[in-house]
Amino acid sequence: MTESTPDTPVVPDSTGAEDAAMAEEGSKARQLLGMKGAQSGETSIWKIRLQLMKPITWIPLIWGVVCGAAASGNYHWDFRDPLLAAACMLMSGPMLAGYTQTINDFYDRDIDAINEPYRPIPSGAISVPQVVTQILVLLFSGIAISIGLDRAVGHEFPIMLVLTLFGSFVAYIYSAPPLKLKKNGWAGNYALGASYIALPWWAGQALFGTLDWKIIVITLVYSMAGLGIAVVNDFKSVDGDAQLGLKSLPVMFGIDKAAWICVAMIDVFQLGIAAYLMSIHQNLYAVLLILLVIPQITFQDMYFLRDPLNNDVKYQASAQPFLVLGMLVAALAIGHTSL
Question: Burial of 279 by CB count in 10 Å (0-12 exposed, 13-18 middle, 19+ buried)?
């Protein structure tokens, strides 16, 4: 007679449920940040508004203000200057970058219906009148802050207001017909690159120092690297762009050739800035900038050039920190020469 053994209790495997919950939370976080791959389903109007403003895009503009302040050579760690810098960052990031992203989504709602139908406007999560109200509130808030900054530092010429109006105009013609600069891959991506590198740099420099033509030219050259970064974002929407006749670089040149153009722009113009730093005898900073370009080239080979359609986000996350650190290195070098 065989002795029977009690059945072993079956313990439910919770791993799958936990993974699903973590994936859902990750999707919600990406949704709020305005990142690629975020799914719909949010019902809070304030979270939807935040998603339209794409907080992930504020970071380069906030960093650009830091670079401009550093390049001015006149930033002081006292009570006043950090408050002014914070106000300038608020203006450049949440207000004006938020305005730019919202107006872009507004005019891109037909493209998003093809490429990203889960975005707030094509999904119907927010109405068109609500979007228009958000655009106006963000724009006029940015203008109000710029006027306050001009008065706070005693500018005779309202340079902060002028930069705000100019940047807002560029953002409008980038997204809105009849010009809609983003129809052309070169003009649109350069406008985007300059908006993320040159404009916030100018704001920080003008707030704490003097914005001269030399700085304007240098930052506009640096913005050519920003053009390359902007092209990275075009790969995710190549199908919708082609259907709607938008001439992005991936549409015009094909995936592989556009990827090479993209990385060439990113690398060559950063190296050009390094050469400029050598010309003004800032050799240490030039070497540091070159060393920061090297890991970018490595990640370009590892991720982007091998599969730009699927590795665009991974490439940006790994390589862009080195680019923005390079911007600060260049700014510190320029600020050092002005002391």
Answer: exposed
Asked if residue 8 belongs to a domain, the reply is: no
Q: pTM score, two decimals? A: 0.87
3-class DSSP string for 164-219: HHHHHHHHHHHHCCCCCHHHEHHHHHHHHHHHHCHHHHHHHHHHHCCCCHHHHHHH
**Is the distance from CB of 164 to CB of 142 less than 8 angstroms?**
yes
Distances (CA, A) of 183 to 100, 111, 117, 174, 225: 16, 12, 20, 8, 20
The pLDDT tens digits of the residues spanning 182-222 come to 888 899 999 999 999 999 999 999 999 999 999 999 999 99
Supply 216's token pair. Answer: 């304007």
Among the listed residues 161, 126, 156, the one whose alpha carbon sits nearest the alpha carbon of residue 52: 126
Residue 58: which domain range?
A: 44-337
Task: Write the CATH number for 210.
Answer: 1.10.600
